[in-house]
Design brief:
118 residues, mainly beta, 2 domains, 3-stranded antiparallel sheet, two-stranded antiparallel ribbon, 7 strands, globular
């Protein structure tokens, strides 16, 4: 298993544990303010953390799926696959006073990288 490091996100508002060798894509190209993007130095894999706007018409697990599928559609994903959707325990959240619920969705999307065909 690769060594890991604590990586601050969005100016330190929260953090994620990432492999030590993960490359911050914003050091290579512009990244939107609502995204943090990291890539693996050897594989063709990337991790995108994206802050999304509340959509009041969907809640709970359905909201997590809605946003994942919406981002895939906007990016022109050839395939979108949800692997799991799990609730987060609110007592483990730094923003617990601001949230009524929190979810983690794990999935895969097959999307062409910038300037490439799908």
């Amino acid at each position: 298993m690769e060594p890991m490091r604590d990586c601050p996100l969005f100016g330190g508002a929260f953090s994620a544990i990432l492999p030590t060798g993960a490359i911050d894509v914003s050091d290579l190209r512009p990244v939107p303010d609502n995204q943090e993007v990291f890539c693996h130095p050897v594989t063709d894999q990337s991790l995108i953390v994206e802050l999304l706007e509340l959509q009041a018409h969907v809640q709970g697990e359905a909201a997590a799926r809605y946003h994942f599928e919406d981002v895939g559609g906007v990016q022109g994903a050839r395939a979108v696959h949800v692997e799991s959707v799990q609730p987060l325990s609110l007592e483990n959240l730094a923003l617990r006073g601001c949230c009524q619920e929190a979810w983690v969705l794990s999935g895969k999307q097959q999307i062409a990288k910038e300037n490439q065909q799908p």
